[in-house]
Amino acid sequence: MPEIIELPERPYVGVRRTITMTQFGLVGDRIGEIIGWLAERGQYPAGAPFFRYDEIDMAADRLVVQAGVPLATPVEGEGDIFADVLPAGRYVAVSHHGHPDQLIGVTDSMLKWAKDQGLTWDMTEKDGTEHWGCRLELYNTNPAEEPDMNNWDTDLQFRLKD
After folding, report:
1. What is the mean pLDDT of residues 30-42?
2. Quick check: helix, strand or coil at residue 99?
3. What's the average model confidence in pLDDT over 107-120?
4. Cα-Cα-Cα-Cα dihedral sign, residues 43, 5, 54, 108
């Protein structure tokens, strides 16, 4: 069952790509690289790596997605690894245990729940593209420790409009 939570601003580093639904590896495969880049600088993740959806156009199969790693303190980016912050605010959150392929259904249920509650997302739509203020999938399971994706734990956090 979704819940509304208040989250502080959270620094992170990440990479951004424009992809299709079948190209998540282009960003997801960079998470290990980002963690290694941080370790070289004496920095370590302060939470689960995530995907942040900036733009979604399902009709055109076009997504602008970030792969990010949260930090306890900000660092400067380098090359295509950039530094940013996840905005503070109220988020609708839900946890999921199971294969990431099931997240489409979990997301649909969460969006319906929020609509039924009369909630408004931090999102604008223009020409069929959704532009999200902060829409996250946080991957709590380390694939090196649990390779069976059916046993993964994922949190969804979608920011509400102020």
Report:
1. 96
2. coil
3. 97
4. positive
Structure-block tokens of residue 33: 């690289």
Q: What tokens does 46 get?
A: 């302060």
| Domain map (residue ranges) of the chain | 3-159
In sequence order, the β-bridge partners of residue 17 are: 65
DSSP 139-154: E-S-TTT---GGG-EE
Q: Is the pTM of this model over 0.90?
A: yes
CATH code assigned to 3-159: 3.20.80.10
pLDDT tens for 51-83 read 999 999 999 999 999 999 999 999 999 999 999
- In the block, tokens 């709590």 appear at 140
Q: Report how far residue 130's alpha carbon sits from residue 53's, in angstroms, rounded to the nearest whole number.
A: 9
Torsion on CA atoms 142, 143, 146, 152, rounded to nearest 10: 80
Neighbours of 116 (CB within 10 A): 8
Q: Pick from 13, 31, 12: which is nearest to 141 by CA? A: 31
Share of the chain above pLDDT 70, in %: 100
Q: How far apart are CA 96 and CA 41, in angstroms?
A: 33
Distance CA 87, CA 94 (A): 18
